[in-house]
Design goal:
This protein is an alpha/beta fold and 308 residues long. The protein is built from 13 helices and six strands. It has two domains: 5-113 and 181-307, P-loop containing nucleotide triphosphate hydrolases (Rossmann fold), CATH 3.40.50.300; 121-178, Histone, subunit A (Orthogonal Bundle), CATH 1.10.20. Helix 2 links the parallel strand 2 (30-34) and strand 3 (61-62). Helix 10 packs across helix 11. It is globular, with a radius of gyration of 19 Å.
């Protein structure tokens, strides 16, 4: 799809991106590429808010269930995989639509990969062992100190920022700009927004629904496989709070509230990131409107852009 426009639906968590994609499927023969750094992990369906089996039966999704919870999956790997998926979807005569809230995944695909600096394997292994001994907050403080442009995230992202800065002498964000390759994709963004009060209530509702659906039991099952509490797949919001309960670090009745609080903070960071990082045409829409109307407006705007 080099040189072609690529629809990318972005927005904060719980804003309703999946619902809009499902409604768009009534207008376009589309397939979704998930740009969500948590949904790549297998057996963590509730905690990562994956589309349900029924939704996935209605609309094919790629980018889900790619790796086990103990394996790392990077933005660069996503971009390479997504480019292959785009070619496959296009060859089937369908339209690829990227849907997700992980800004680094979107940026890696839309703006091009950066050429990663060579890192000494032995030194990297030593640093990773050291980072594994730190608690999450201390690791994030190290990442903030070593990379002033670091925008936060989980242990995996913070650990990567620390190791690149210490082993190359330059922050990861510097490399991402200075060593960037050119992408052949022209992004066409659909940015979904919602008033803060509405989004916060949706976040609370989703956190409570996760608990009702069996989030704690899902996470306990993954831990029982032998994965460490700080494994890459267990470090995301909605899962790490359940891990804390299962390790006796918080009462069960506080899990949903903790998830909602952490998710609200994350959604705020997402909104800031998307306001400043999207390069290309952006169609901004109020996601409190009916999804059918949003889908019709997106389809009409897409047709106008194709004619321009």
């Amino acid at each position: 799809m080099a040189g072609a426009n690529l629809p990318i639906i972005v927005g904060p968590t719980a804003v309703g991106k999946t619902a809009v994609a499902l409604a768009l499927a009534r207008h376009w023969p589309l397939e979704v590429i998930s740009a969500d750094s948590r949904q790549v992990y297998r057996r963590l369906d509730i905690g990562t808010a994956k589309p349900t089996r029924r939704e996935r039966a209605r609309l094919p999704h790629l980018g889900l269930d790619l790796v086990d919870p103990g394996e790392r999956y990077s933005a660069g790997r996503f971009a390479r995989d997504a480019e292959a998926w785009i070619r496959e979807i296009t060859a089937r005569g369908h339209l690829p639509v990227v849907v997700g809230g992980t800004g680094l995944y979107v940026k890696a695909l839309a703006d091009g990969l950066f050429l990663e600096p060579p890192l000494d394997p032995a030194q990297r292994q030593t640093l990773q062992a050291w980072a594994a001994e730190l608690d999450a907050r201390e690791l994030l403080r190290w990442a903030d100190r070593l990379d002033p442009e670091f925008r936060g995230g989980g242990r995996q992202r913070a650990s990567r920022a620390v190791e690149v800065a210490l082993l190359t002498g330059r922050p990861l964000t510097w490399w991402q700009v200075a060593a960037r390759a050119t992408s052949g994709i022209r992004p066409w963004y659909i940015y979904l927004t919602a008033p803060r009060a509405v989004l916060q209530q949706r976040i609370i509702n989703r956190a409570e629904e996760m608990i009702r659906r069996g989030l704690v039991e899902e996470v306990a099952s993954v831990l029982a496989e032998g994965h460490a509490a700080h494994a890459p797949g267990l470090d995301g919001i909605g899962i790490r709070e359940a891990v804390e309960y299962l390790h006796g670090q918080r009462p069960r009745e506080t899990v949903a509230e903790a998830i909602a609080i952490d998710t609200r903070r994350y959604a705020k960071r997402q909104e800031t990131w998307f306001r400043h990082q999207l390069s290309g045409p952006v169609l901004m829409l109020d996601a409190t409107r009916p999804v059918e109307k949003l889908a019709a407006e997106i389809a009409a705007a897409w047709e106008r852009s194709a004619e321009a």
